[in-house]
C-alpha cells in the first residue's frame, strides 16, 4: 500500500507536464518520496534540526519516529510538518516550498587556509581561499561543509558575502570537537581542506517589504552578519534590529564593530544580551528571545531571522508566534554542536 501526496501552492514553477502528486510508501519520509518522484522540495540538514523542509498539511496526517526538534509543538498544532522526518499516515495534500529556479547544486572544491586569527577565547576567524569557487553564487546566509579525512562533514556558515576567492567564517571551539579544537593546534595558513558548497536555504527574502528582526546566539551571528553586510549598499534596505545573545561579555567577539554600525548606519539597532553576566554588566540580561519579547508586544510587521542552538530557536519561534509573527515569516538556521562530537555535522 502507498499514499498519494498532492502538492498545492508550491513556491517554484514546475513544467506543465510535471504531475502535481507523488507516491509515498508507509514509513518513508516525505522528502525522500518527493525526491524519488523528481520533486525538489526545499530542505537542508535532513535530520529534523533546521526546519527548512517545513510543509503545511492541508489534508491528511503524518507521524514521526521521534518528534523533530526543528518543529515546535505550536507549529505542529497549526498543521506544519517537517518533510525530512514526517511519514504519511494517509493520503495527503500539502503546501510546500520547492528549491528555487536556478538552484545551484553543491560541488566539491579544494580550499587553502588564508588566515587563522583569534576573535575571542573560543572563537576563531577562519579565512579560506577557494579559487575554483570564485564565480559560484553563494547567497549570504548559506554555509559550506569542511570534509574530514573520514568523509564526515563539518558545517560552517559564511560570516560575510564572499569576495572573489575569499570566504570567511567564525568558528567556535567545541570542547572535545574533532575539527574545531584542531584549528588551534593542528592547522595553519597554507594548509588545504576539502570543502563542499554552496549549501543551505537560509537567506534574505528580498521580495518581502517587512523590517528585519535578527536574533543570533553565539556564532549564530555569522550568517546574520553576512546578510546584513549584503544589504549595506542597498538604497532601499529594510530597517534591521539585531539581538545577539551570549553568556558573558568576553563572548561578544564583534561587539565593537556592531556598536559602530549602530552609531553610523541609519535604521540599524543592536542589542547584546548576556545570559550569565558579571555583576558589573550594565546591559540586557537573560535569554535573548526574552529580551525581544520585552521590547515588542507585536511582531507582526517583521520578518525574523534566527540562528543559534536548537533550544534558542524553539523558544524564539514559540514566543514570537505568540506576538503575532507569522510562522511563515520566521527563517531559522539551527546549530547542533553535539554532532561535532558524534562525528557528523558540526
UniProtKB/TrEMBL annotation:
Domain annotation 2Fe-2S ferredoxin-type: ranges: 3-100
Cross-referenced Pfam families: FAD_binding_6 (PF00970), Fer2 (PF00111), NAD_binding_1 (PF00175)
PROSITE patterns: 2FE2S_FER_1, 2FE2S_FER_2, FAD_FR
Biased composition (Polar residues): 1-18
Entries under InterPro entries matching the protein: 2Fe-2S_ferredoxin-like_sf, 2Fe-2S_ferredoxin-type, 2Fe2S_fd_BS, Beta-grasp_dom_sf, Cbr1-like_FAD-bd_dom, FAD-bd_FR_type, Flavoprot_Pyr_Nucl_cyt_Rdtase, FNR_nucleotide-bd
Cofactor: [2Fe-2S] cluster
SUPFAM superfamilies in UniProt: 2Fe-2S ferredoxin-like, Ferredoxin reductase-like, C-terminal NADP-linked domain, Riboflavin synthase domain-like
Residue ranges constituting the FAD-binding FR-type domain according to the UniProt record: 106-205
Region Disordered, annotated ranges: 1-24
Gene3D superfamilies the UniProt entry points to: 3.10.20.30, Nucleotide-binding domain of ferredoxin-NADP reductase (FNR) module, Translation factors
Signal peptide start-end: none
Entries under PANTHER family matching the protein: NADH OXIDOREDUCTASE HCR, PROTEIN RFBI
Protein name: 2Fe-2S iron-sulfur cluster binding domain-containing protein
Amino acid at each position: 500500500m502507498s499514499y498519494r501526496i498532492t502538492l498545492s501552492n508550491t513556491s517554484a514553477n514546475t513544467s506543465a507536464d510535471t504531475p502535481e502528486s507523488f507516491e509515498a510508501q508507509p514509513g518513508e519520509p516525505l522528502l525522500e518520496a518527493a525526491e524519488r518522484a523528481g520533486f525538489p522540495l526545499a530542505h537542508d540538514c535532513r535530520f529534523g534540526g533546521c526546519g527548512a523542509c517545513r510543509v503545511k498539511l492541508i489534508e491528511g496526517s503524518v507521524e514521526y519516529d521521534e518528534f523533530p526538534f526543528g518543529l515546535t509543538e505550536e507549529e505542529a498544532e497549526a498543521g506544519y510538518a517537517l518533510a525530512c522526518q514526517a511519514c504519511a499516515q494517509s493520503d495527503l495534500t500539502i503546501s510546500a516550498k520547492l528549491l528555487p529556479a536556478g538552484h545551484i547544486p553543491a560541488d566539491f572544491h579544494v580550499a587553502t587556509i588564508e588566515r587563522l586569527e583569534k576573535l575571542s577565547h573560543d572563537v576563531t576567524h577562519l579565512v579560506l581561499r577557494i579559487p575554483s569557487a570564485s564565480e559560484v553564487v553563494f547567497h549570504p546566509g548559506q554555509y559550506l561543509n569542511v570534509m574530514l579525512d573520514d568523509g564526515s562533514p563539518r558545517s560552517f556558515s559564511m560570516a560575510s558575502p564572499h569576495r572573489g576567492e575569499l570566504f570567511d567564517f567564525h568558528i567556535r571551539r567545541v570542547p572535545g570537537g574533532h575539527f574545531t579544537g584542531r584549528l588551534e593546534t593542528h592547522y595553519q595558513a597554507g594548509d588545504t581542506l576539502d570543502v563542499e558548497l554552496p549549501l543551505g536555504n537560509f537567506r534574505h527574502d528580498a521580495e518581502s517589504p517587512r523590517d528585519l528582526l535578527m536574533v543570533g546566539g553565539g556564532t549564530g551571528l555569522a550568517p546574520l552578519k553576512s546578510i546584513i553586510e549584503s544589504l549595506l549598499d542597498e538604497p532601499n534596505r529594510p530597517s534591521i534590529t539585531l539581538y545577539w545573545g551570549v553568556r558573558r561579555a568576553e563572548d561578544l567577539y564583534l561587539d565593537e564593530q556592531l556598536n559602530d554600525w549602530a552609531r553610523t548606519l541609519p535604521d540599524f539597532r543592536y542589542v547584546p544580551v548576556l545570559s550569565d553576566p558579571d555583576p558589573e554588566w550594565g546591559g540586557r540580561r537573560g535569554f535573548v528571545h526574552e529580551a525581544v519579547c520585552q521590547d515588542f508586544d507585536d511582531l507582526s510587521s517583521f520578518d525574523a531571522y534566527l540562528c543559534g542552538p536548537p533550544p534558542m530557536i524553539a523558544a524564539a519561534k514559540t514566543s514570537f508566534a505568540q506576538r503575532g509573527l507569522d510562522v511563515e515569516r520566521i527563517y531559522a538556521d539551527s546549530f547542533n554542536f553535539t554532532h561535532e562530537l558524534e562525528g557528523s555535522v558540526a
